[in-house]
Structures are given as C-alpha cells and as structure tokens.
Amino acid sequence: MALCLLTGVAWSQSAGTEIPRSVQRKLLRDAARLTLRLAAQQEDLRFQRISIPRQPMMEIYEVLAAIYTADERARTLERCNVHTFPNPPIERCVVIFERNASWAAPLREGITETNSPEINELLDEYDLIIEKHVQWNDRHDAMTIRSTEPLNMAALANEFYNVEGVVEVDLGIPDVSGSDIELRRLPDGWEVKYILRFGSLFDDAGQSHIWVWKVSDSKQVQFVKEEGAPIPSWMRCQFEQGELLVHSY
Fold first, then answer.
1. Cβ atoms of residues 105 and 49 within 8 Å
2. pLDDT digit string (tens) for 163-218?
3. CB 130 within 8 A of CB 94
4. Burial class (CB in 10 A: 0-12, 13-18, 19+), 249
5. Would you list the domain boundaries of the chain?
C-alpha cells in the first residue's frame, strides 16, 4: 500500500515543521508522477515496468518534503492543493470489455471478481482492486481498477489489452490543463516549479503563477523566484483566521 512506501521514512522536520500523514501521501503521489515523467523521456511508459522504481521515487519525495518543511510558501501551496497534474495516471484505469466475455460472469452477478487467470494474476501481483463494474454502452461493460499504491498505469493497461474480450483501457487523463509541479535535474540538485493555473483551462487563454525552488543533493533548499500573472482574489486561500496564504499582486 501507499503507506507502506512511507514506512521507514522519517517525518521531515525543519524549524519544528512536521509533515502530516495526509500531506506525505500527496507528496508521494507527486513523486510517483514526476518519476514517471522523467522515465518517459527515455522510453514510452507503456513499455516500462508497472511498478515505479522505489529509489528515484523516494529521492524525489525527499526533495518535495525538503521544500515543504523549509518554506512556508510551499506549505501554503499545499493547502491551496497545488500538486502534480494527474498525468501520467498512477491510481486508476477503466477496462472496457465485451459484455458477454466469459471471464466477466462473476461481475455480471454483482461479485467484484473475474474468471480470467490473466486478470486475477495482475490483481494479486500488483495489489489491485476492482472498484466498480458498470454498463458502458449497448455492447460493452467496464470495470474500474484501482491500485493501492502508485503504479505505472500505462504499462498496466498494456497487460489488460492481452486479455480476450478487452476492447479499450481508459486511463482517465483530463482533457484540460491544471495546476502542476515540474522538476528539472541540475548538475548539483533539482529545480522545482510549483505552477498555479487559472482562467480558461480548455485552451491557451489560461494564466499561471509560478514559484521556483532549487534543492541541492544534500537537500539544502533555496527559494529562487516567484513570477507570473496576478492571482485573482477569488482564488486566494485563507487561514481559518482569515489571513491570506497566497498573495495577489
């Protein structure tokens, strides 16, 4: 499970700042997506491992954790829910299949199981759950597959395509843009950009506001700059007491 990936990872502290478990889980998902994005620069994710390599993922997690604990601005952005855009997918996919597929008999009876040895092996090996079974259209049904820890869902989808009766796997990648975190390797560390996007997210008319940090290989954090379009007042997050978290300019 995702929590298991955090076993043995100390709750990073800086000036008394402790990372809550809920934030750790979000940072782990961010690290998983960023790890896959870096891997995709070398080879299509469909042809890579389903399991995300732990070492690079945890290295990136520690970079994000260092920023979170070192700078109130980063904690502000987390409270404003600025995280990685959900691409590549790491948690769910929808498997669309022929309604009369013999292996789907248990699903048609309301049981979240299948008679397919190939599917059952994937469920067991990668700790997957059949979350939901629905009618997709007049000819096809669909089942939502959820992972209990971050996985390379593009590679997992390739495996489902090998099952007789499967016609499509929907990875659920949004058609719009959104806030994101970007990562770039430097000679002695990492550059990390937190990007808050707003306005029209369906075309190029949207705007963004960006915060940039540099994190050395020894996890020393340096805030580099803040730039971009003014943040609309309606987007400003607030403390419970009403103090602004993200300032407009």
1. no
2. 999 999 999 999 888 899 999 999 999 999 999 998 766 666 688 999 999 999 99
3. no
4. exposed
5. 2-88+176-235, 92-170
| Cα 10 from Cα 43, distance rounded (Å) | 32
Residue type, position 6, single letter: L
Per residue in 126-169, pLDDT (tens digit) is 999 999 999 999 999 999 999 999 999 999 999 999 999 999 99
Quick one: fold of 92-170? Alpha-Beta Plaits (3.30.70)
Residue 139 has φ and ψ, to the nearest 5°, of -115, -20
Output the six-digit token pair for 23: 């934030």
Q: Say what the alpha-carbon torsion angle 168, 174, 176, 181 is, to the nearest 10 degrees.
A: -140
Alpha-carbon gap, residue 34 to 12, rounded angstroms: 20
